[in-house]
Amino acid sequence: MFVLPRLFCLVSSTDDLALLPALAGAGVEGFQVRDKSATTAELVDLTRVVLDAVAPYGARVVVNDRVDVALATGAAGVHLGADDLPVAAARRLAPDLLIGATCRDGEAVRRAAEEGASYAGFGPVARSGSKAGLPEPLGTRALGEAAGPLPLVAIGGVDAQVARAAREAGAHGVAVIAAVWRHPDPIAAAKELVRAVA
């Protein structure tokens, strides 16, 4: 069974992949490969690049949306959104994978737990500019109310301050994009986030 990271950093092909070993060395335990525009072959290649960069540091890699790519590359897991393969089907196909499910409320978290999810990605907890079409921020109170059936990974507008508040509200950990990749010093930002979720 895989240990669930406290800090996930999402990665796409447009990010500076040369920084991945330093991010893992700074204590980022999890990386989620998410590239909506990539072909299957490109996503496989990107996942392998990420795995090669961070696995020596003990970091885990999950693939966004694609159970097949996670299995093909030997990634630790997959993160599924509402329009992806249902969690129960993914669990039947991949009984040993870490499986995350995007959830927006406590009922969704309970359903995901019943279907075999390992954790729930809960959010957006704060305002995010990294993904279009998100609902209004749910806040840490909603996160606290949803905690219990599964470990929650807070996502959406997470910086170090939000990460601390999310952990205090009951989140197991957080997932970030802009807090690392849009920061002037991504490694320093990663270290601050690691401290925030400790």
Automatic annotation (TrEMBL):
Lineage: Bacteria, Bacillati, Actinomycetota, Actinomycetes, Propionibacteriales
PANTHER family, A to Z: THIAMINE-PHOSPHATE PYROPHOSPHORYLASE, THIAMINE-PHOSPHATE SYNTHASE
Pathway where it operates: Cofactor biosynthesis; thiamine diphosphate biosynthesis; thiamine phosphate from 4-amino-2-methyl-5-diphosphomethylpyrimidine and 4-methyl-5-(2-phosphoethyl)-thiazole: step 1/1
Organism, as annotated: Nocardioides gansuensis
Example of a GO MF term: magnesium ion binding
Function of the molecule: Condenses 4-methyl-5-(beta-hydroxyethyl)thiazole monophosphate (THZ-P) and 2-methyl-4-amino-5-hydroxymethyl pyrimidine pyrophosphate (HMP-PP) to form thiamine monophosphate (TMP).
Keywords from the named record: Magnesium, Metal-binding, Thiamine biosynthesis, Transferase
Name this polypeptide is given: Thiamine-phosphate synthase
HAMAP family, A to Z: TMP_synthase
